[in-house]
Amino acid sequence: MATVGERIKERRDELDWTQDDLATKANISKSFLSDLENGKRNVGADKLLDIARALSLSLDYLMTGKDAKKKATREPEKEVQIPKALAEFAGDEGISFRQAIALLEMQNQIIAHRSSTKKGHLDKVDWQKFYEAVKEFL
In what residue span(s) does the HTH cro/C1-type domain sit (predicted)? Predict the structure, then answer.
C-alpha cells in the first residue's frame, strides 16, 4: 500500500510538476515536501489540505488511497484522469476536486454529443472560460 508521500509524488509526476512547483502552489518548503515524499516526515491536516488542493485531489485519497464516499456507498471504483490543463486551472483558482470532476464530466458530455470532437483534446480546453460559463451549475 502506498504512503501519503508516495501518492503525492505520483500525482505530482502525473502533472509534470517539480517539487518546487508543488511547494510553491501548496505554500510549503521544498525540503519539507522532499522529506514527506521520502517518508521522513509526517504532515498535519492543514498542510495536507493545502497539498490536496494544489494537486486537485481529495483528502480521503491522499490519506487512504481511496475515496471514502465511494467506499461507503459501495459504488465500483473507477479511476478518473484529470487533464493537466484542468488540474492546473483548478489549483490556480482554488477549485475543489469535486468541482474539477464536475467540470470534466460536463465537458465530456458536450464532447459526447459532438461527433467531430475527440476526447484527446481536453488539454486544449479553455477551462477558465468553460468554468465561468457553467459555475452557477456546480
Answer: 8-62
